[in-house]
Each structure stands twice: as C-alpha cells, then as structure tokens.
C-alpha cells in the first residue's frame, strides 16, 4: 500500500474536498490501484531527459531564445482593455451565488 | 430531401440556392431531437432563440443573393465545455448547473461568424473526464448504433448527435482521446487538430497542456471545412499558435500515391480486439492499394503513455478545478458557517466521483515529497513519447493505428473499474501528449454492427496530410457515416 488513510485525509485537505467515510475508503483503493500501475514509469532512466511542460515550446521563436523570451509571440502591450473591454460590473456578478452591488459575498473569512 | 442527412456543403448550398432555408434545417433537427433524444440523451440544453435568430440572419442573406459564409445555415451542436454567452454551460457538472457564461468561446464565435446555427449544448463526461459519457452529472448518453452501449467519451453527446442526425456537425474537445474515441464508437469522423491550432479561449479547462477543440462530422471534408473556420491565432489564448492556416480543402483531393504510412507494432499488440485489428488491417491494405507505401515504425515508449497521461492530466486538472469554490459562479452549499466549510461542501456537492478521484490523484502527484517522483517524472517521459513521434515522422508522412482497442462497450461495464476505463485510452493519449493532430474515421463494423475507427496521426500542423488520407480512404470505400 503506497497511499495511507492519512495521505488521503491530507490530500483531501489540500484539494479542499470533503470526502465521506465511504468515499475515503474507495479513494484509498482506487488511488493505490492507479499508482501501482503508474510505477511502471520507474523502468525508464530519465536522468538526462528534459521535462516537457508545454507543447508550444516548439512554436515560439528559435531554440536560441531563453526563458520568457521563448514565448515572445504571446506578449502584448500592457494596455488597459488592450484585447477587449472588461466585463461590466453587474455582468461579472451575475452568476454569483451571493453578492451585493459591489462584491461577491462569502461567509466570515477570519474567525474571531 | 431528408434535411437532417445533409453534409455541410449540401446544406449550405441548399440554403444559398434557396431549395431550403436555414430555418427549415434547424426545425428539422429540432424535430429529430424531439423524437430521438429522449432515448439518446445527447443534448443538455437547447438554444432555440439563438439558433432561429441566426437562421433568420442567414436566410435573409440568401434572399438578398449574398454569398453565404462556409457554414451558412448549418445546424451544429457545441460540447457543453465551451462557453456560449447567455446559454447555460455546465461542463456536465452539478457545480455549473446554473452557470450562464458572459462571453463566447472563440471557436464558437468563429463557427457562428461562418454562419453556423448553434442548436444547443452537448452532453459530456463531467469536466471532460471520462471515456464513456457515463460521468455526466445529468444523464448518460447512449450510442445511437446500439442503445445498450456507450457512445464513448468525453464528447459522447457530440458524437451521438452527428451519428443520429440530430446535428450536421458538432464541436468536441479532446484531452486524452475525447473526440477521436467517441467518433470511433459512434461511426463518425472526429478530428483533433495540433495543439495550439485552435484557440482554447472559452474552453472550460481540464488539462491546459493537453486540451484541444475539434469537429465531429459525417465526412472528412466536413471536418476540413470546420477546421478552416475555427483554426488560427487568437490573442485571447497565449498558447494558440501563430502559424498560418492553409486552405484545407485544396489538399483534400490530391492523390495519396507515394505517401508513406507508418504502422507501429506497439499499437497492434495484445489487448487489441480481433475484429478491430482485422478492420484496421483491411483499411491499411486499402490505403496501400491507393498507392501508399507502408513502413514499419516503432514507438517504443507507448506502454508508458497511460501512466504519463494520468499524472500530467490529473495534476493540471487539480489546479484548473480549484476555481470551482462556490464564490463567483459555481454552486455554493447552503447553511455553511465558515469560508473553509463553504469551499469543501460546495465542491463535495458539485463534483462527481471521477472528478474527485482525478483531483485527488493530481494533488497527490504535485504534493511536496511526491512532485519529483510523479509529476516531474511524467513530464520527462512525455518528452520521450514526443521524441518517438519525431523520429518516426522523419521516415513517414502519417501513422495509422486503431482508434480504440475495442468497439463500444456496454453501459455500466467499466463503471466500477477506473483503471480498466483508463487503459482503453491507450491509442489516443499519445497524440495529446505529443501535441500532434489525429483523425478517426469509420473503417468497418464488428459482427454486432458496432462501428470501428481507423486513426491517422500526423506531424505538427500537418492536418492537411491526415485529412487528405482520410478523404481518399473515405472516397474509396463505403464506410462514410450514413
């Protein structure tokens, strides 16, 4: 067993998921079964292989560019409403479960 | 003339020449939806007002003798992971069951600018996570070819609607095979373009480095027409490629004689159903008879593709789904006292089992102490997989494989075994990981009359080659979706 009950509780906490007792048991079983299968990746020696974080690494400029310069094609002038007009305030609040005229409202953030 | 069985060209021409109207086409589809969709479940929301307004606009253009744009009057469906302004968009999830987007997905806007009539939103696996459309929070979709079976997923509704003539074409999304596999199971054409070919702006994100938008259609030519309408750089999506969009239609009729097709032994090994193998091998023979040269290739890291995919996709999903917190637009739990309780209970109520499973796996793979062993490792293996294709493509123009190891399985058959469901994606996930384009076209049936799909994979931005090959095969056989 790779994943323990404590791991499941910890990860659920990180992910802001509230799992029932039954869900925890099923999750333990499923995660272990999947991770067992994933173990096969350890057969490969990848010590010299660069990670591929983004497919479009290939599309930006030449190989000579470094860092964020490789994504020069994705840059634009830092202008307010440069790409399009911002959403009107009321439109942005329209799907809110709870809002006043200005803000999304939520339960108390800080306990006193 | 059966209005619901027309291809894009035939429909558009009929509207242009006024042998029918866009209105009549839309109404014919809605009548069919009314009649059939109770059993199939392909649609989640119908957008009649929007559809009929657009139809009216197109009909007026035709009446004034103006040339209609390429999709003028063509009734289409949009997978419910693409935002449509003013029309409910759910991503197949309870967390968004009342979400009304304030903007349009770029691909949808481009379809409408090209004259398409959006009939409604297609059912799908929740947040595009699934291979059977059984994970929709609303209801499953049934395969029109056999109602006891799945249509495939996650674009099950999109594939079923085209197969059942409820729409001429649909847009779907593909992250691990979700356009191609349902196309294969339902007997229609499904095209996944190169990553970055079509803007992802307005696509509700599952895995940002793997998500693609693409068409499901009756013919390869229809897929080419739609690709031409939706492809191209979009400043709203920084990952959309600044690569010119060719005229996909001119390439279509070019003879395929002399093209080199790779056949990879790893895609014809154990686990492949005999009937599928036979149909695909026969299809490859057909392409050979058209003058293609068959070249054996090897994609040696294929067996590592599923574990790689399920680490990268779930990790990215865990980040992308963090926004469904009940604050701004997603479902909020009632009766909560603290912010923390609100987050947890809202997400618990909003997400189904598969979504939770993937968020958990992804979060685990990214967590301190495990990041290197899982996520980073998977990213390195991803490079190896991409290199396999790069090497193969120095020798061949395209690679032909089965789309799926089996034909459509029964509803409920793989439901309790997530791993078995994941393993069914083996032939499709590799293209998503490498960012290359792939198309699935019908190439036969099992003895139970279930459709079988042939997959053609191409080089980055070489959709023309796979469309050309698909079109040639389709024209030379009778497997075109009815």
Descriptive account of the structure:
Chain A is mostly helical and 112 residues long. Chain A has a domain at 5-43: Histone, subunit A (Orthogonal Bundle), CATH 1.10.20. Chain A is built from 3 helices and no strands. Chain A has helices spanning 5-14, 21-38, 89-93. Chain B is globular and about 65 Å long. Chain B has a domain at 3-256: Amidase signature (AS) domain (Amidase signature (AS) enzymes, Alpha-Beta Complex). Chain B is of the alpha/beta class. The mean pLDDT of chain B is 96. In chain B, β10 (438-445) and β11 (451-458) form a beta hairpin. In chain B, α10 (305-320) packs across α12. Chain B has an 11-stranded mixed sheet with strand order 1-3-2-4-6-5-10-11-9-7-8, with helices on both faces. Chain B is built from 16 helices and 11 strands. Classes of the chains: A mainly alpha (112), B alpha/beta (482). At the A-B interface, α1 and α2 of A face α10, α11, α12, α13 and α14 of B.
Amino- and carboxy-terminal Cα gap of chain B: 14 Å
Overall geometric form of chain B: globular
Second-tier CATH architecture of the domain at 3-256 in chain B: Alpha-Beta Complex
Number of helices of chain B: 16
Computed Rg of chain B: 21 Å
The portion of residues forming beta strands of chain B comes to 5-15%
Structure summary:
The complex is a heterodimer of chains A (112) and B (482). By secondary structure, chain A is an all-alpha fold.
């Amino acid at each position: 067993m790779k994943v323990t009950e404590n791991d499941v509780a910890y990860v659920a906490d990180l992910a802001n998921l509230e799992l029932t007792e039954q869900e925890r048991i099923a999750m333990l079983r499923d995660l272990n079964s999947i991770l067992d299968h994933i173990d096969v990746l350890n057969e490969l020696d990848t010590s010299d292989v660069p990670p591929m974080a983004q497919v479009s690494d290939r599309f930006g400029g030449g190989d000579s560019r470094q860092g964020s310069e490789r994504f020069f094609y994705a840059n634009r002038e830092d202008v307010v409403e440069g790409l399009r007009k911002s959403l009107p305030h009321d439109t942005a609040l329209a799907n809110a479960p709870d809002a006043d005229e200005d803000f999304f409202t939520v339960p108390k953030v800080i306990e006193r | 003339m059966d209005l619901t069985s027309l291809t894009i060209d035939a429909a558009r021409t009929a509207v242009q020449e006024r042998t029918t109207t866009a209105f009549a086409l839309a109404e014919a589809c809605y009548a069919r939806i009314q009649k059939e969709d109770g059993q199939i479940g392909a649609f989640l929301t119908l957008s009649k007002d929007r559809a009929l307004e657009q139809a009216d606009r197109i009909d007026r253009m035709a009446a004034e003798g103006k040339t209609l744009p390429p999709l003028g009057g063509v009734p289409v469906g949009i997978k419910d992971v693409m935002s449509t302004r003013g029309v409910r968009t759910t991503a197949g999830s309870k967390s968004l069951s009342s979400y009304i987007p304030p903007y349009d997905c770029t691909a949808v806007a481009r379809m409408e600018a090209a004259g398409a009539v959006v009939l409604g939103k297609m059912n799908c696996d929740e947040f595009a996570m699934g291979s059977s459309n059984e994970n929709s929070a609303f209801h499953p979709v049934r395969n029109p070819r056999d109602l006891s079976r799945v249509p495939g997923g996650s674009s099950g509704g999109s594939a079923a609607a085209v197969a059942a003539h409820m729409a001429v074409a649909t847009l779907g999304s593909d992250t691990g095979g979700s356009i191609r596999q349902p196309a294969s199971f339902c007997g229609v054409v499904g095209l996944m373009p190169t990553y970055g070919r079509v803007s992802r702006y307005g696509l509700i994100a599952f895995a940002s480095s793997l998500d693609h938008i693409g068409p499901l259609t009756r013919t390869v030519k229809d897929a080419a027409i739609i690709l031409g309408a939706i492809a191209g750089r979009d400043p709203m999506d920084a990952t959309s490629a600044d690569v010119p969009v060719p005229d996909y239609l001119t390439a279509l009729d070019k003879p395929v004689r002399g093209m080199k097709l790779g056949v990879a032994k790893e895609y014809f090994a154990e686990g492949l159903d005999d009937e599928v193998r036979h149909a695909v091998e026969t299809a490859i023979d057909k392409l050979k008879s058209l003058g293609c040269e068959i070249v054996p290739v090897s994609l040696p890291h294929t067996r590592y593709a599923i574990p790689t995919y399920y680490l990268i996709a779930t990790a990215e999903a865990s980040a992308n789904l963090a926004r469904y917190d009940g604050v701004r637009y997603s479902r909020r739990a009632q009766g909560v006292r603290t912010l923390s309780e609100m987050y947890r209970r809202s997400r618990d109520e909003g997400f189904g089992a598969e979504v939770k499973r993937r968020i958990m796996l992804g979060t685990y793979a990214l967590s301190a102490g495990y990041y290197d062993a899982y996520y980073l490792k998977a990213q390195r293996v991803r490079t190896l997989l991409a290199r396999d294709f790069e090497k193969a493509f120095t020798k061949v123009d395209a690679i032909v494989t089965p789309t799926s190891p089996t034909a459509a399985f029964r509803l409920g058959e793989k439901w309790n075994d997530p791993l078995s469901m994941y393993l069914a994606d083996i032939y499709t996930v590799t293209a998503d990981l490498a960012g290359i384009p792939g198309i699935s076209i019908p190439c036969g049936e099992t003895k139970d009359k279930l459709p079988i799909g042939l997959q053609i994979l191409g080089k980055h931005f070489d959709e023309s080659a796979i469309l050309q090959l698909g079109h040639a095969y389709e024209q030379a056989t009778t497997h075109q979706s009815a």
